[in-house]
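Design request, C-alpha cells follow.
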C-alpha cells in the first residue's frame, strides 16, 4: 500500500508543473498544455498514448497538426502544409513533428512578425553537475539476515537542460559498497536514472528519483551446507526501477550539499525483509 501511494504521489508531482486547459475541438473536449504563446500558439498533450499537437491563431482557431499514413503506410506530413499556410510560406523542409522542432519553428515565426515578441531561444544547452558521496547501506534487495550495514561511496554525473531552475535531469552513477566481517558481500554498480524536482527553489530542492538500469559486479563469500567456504563473483544487468528521494542544498554559487535516500523500494526487485537503509551525504558542483 505504501509503495502504491508513493508511486501515485510521484507520478502526480511529475505532471503538476504543466498547466492544462480544456478545449473543444471537432466536438471533442481535449485537455491541452500551452507550450508557446505568440501570433501562433503551440498546444499539445499525450492523448491515448500518442503525442498530439495543435496551433492556435490570434482569432482563437485551433488546428491539429497531423501526420497520417496513406494506404502504403507512407507519412503524408500534413502538418507541414498546415504550418506553411499559417506562416506565410515559411519553409518546413526540416520540420519534425516533435515538441522541440515545432517550438523552434513557431518561435522563429512569431519573432519574425511581431517586434514586441520575446523569443524563448529554445536551442538546447546541456549542463553538467558532478557529485561525490559517502554513506551506508543494508542492501535492501539482497539477503541480509542480520541487517548488517556497510559503507558505500559513489560518484555521479547529472545532466540537465539549461534553465534558471531545471526540474528534470538524468544521471549516470557509479558506486561501490564494501563488505563486512559478518556480511561478506560487496558491489560495484553502474546505473542510469531520472530525477524530478518536486520542490525547486534557488537555495534548495527536493526530488524524487528513479534508477532505471543497473550493471552490477558483485563479490561474495559464504559457507555451504558442508561448511565449505565458497567465493562467488557475478555480473548482472537489470532494469530494477528503484525509487529514491533526495535533496540538494546550495552552499555556493555553483556548489551544493546533497542528501540521498537512494533505494526506498523497487518495482522489479523484492525487499528481502529489512527496512531500507541506503543513505548518502555528498557534495555537488556545476561543471
Amino acid at each position: 500500500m505504501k509503495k502504491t501511494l508513493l508511486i501515485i504521489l510521484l507520478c502526480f508531482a511529475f505532471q503538476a508543473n504543466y498547466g492544462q486547459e480544456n478545449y473543444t475541438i471537432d466536438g471533442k473536449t481535449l485537455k491541452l498544455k500551452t507550450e508557446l504563446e505568440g501570433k501562433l500558439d503551440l498546444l499539445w498533450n499525450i492523448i491515448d498514448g500518442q503525442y498530439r499537437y495543435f496551433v492556435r491563431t490570434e482569432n482563437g482557431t485551433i488546428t491539429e497538426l497531423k501526420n497520417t499514413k496513406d494506404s502504403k503506410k507512407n507519412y503524408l506530413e500534413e502538418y507541414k502544409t498546415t504550418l506553411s499556410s499559417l506562416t506565410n510560406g515559411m519553409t518546413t523542409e526540416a520540420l519534425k513533428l516533435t515538441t522541440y522542432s515545432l517550438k523552434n519553428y513557431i518561435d522563429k515565426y512569431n519573432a519574425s512578425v511581431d517586434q514586441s515578441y520575446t523569443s524563448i531561444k529554445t536551442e538546447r544547452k546541456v549542463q553538467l553537475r558532478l557529485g561525490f558521496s559517502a554513506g551506508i547501506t543494508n542492501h535492501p534487495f539482497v539477503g541480509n539476515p542480520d541487517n548488517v550495514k556497510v559503507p558505500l561511496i559513489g560518484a555521479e554525473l547529472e545532466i540537465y537542460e539549461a534553465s534558471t531552475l531545471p526540474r528534470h535531469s538524468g544521471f549516470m552513477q557509479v558506486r561501490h559498497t564494501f563488505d563486512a566481517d559478518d556480511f561478506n558481500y560487496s558491489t560495484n554498480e553502474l546505473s542510469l536514472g531520472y530525477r524530478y524536482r518536486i520542490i525547486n527553489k534557488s537555495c534548495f530542492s527536493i526530488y524524487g528519483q528513479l534508477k532505471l538500469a543497473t550493471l552490477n559486479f558483485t563479490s561474495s563469500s559464504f559457507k555451504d551446507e558442508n561448511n565449505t567456504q565458497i567465493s562467488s563473483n557475478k555480473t548482472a544487468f537489470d532494469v530494477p526501477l528503484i525509487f529514491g528521494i533526495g535533496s540538494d542544498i546550495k552552499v555556493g554559487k555553483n556548489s551544493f550539499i546533497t542528501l540521498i535516500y537512494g533505494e526506498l523500494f523497487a518495482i522489479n526487485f523484492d525487499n528481502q525483509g529489512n527496512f531500507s537503509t541506503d543513505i548518502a551525504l555528498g557534495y555537488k558542483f556545476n561543471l
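Comment from the thread starter after seeing the answer: thanks! The longest strand covers residues 204-223.
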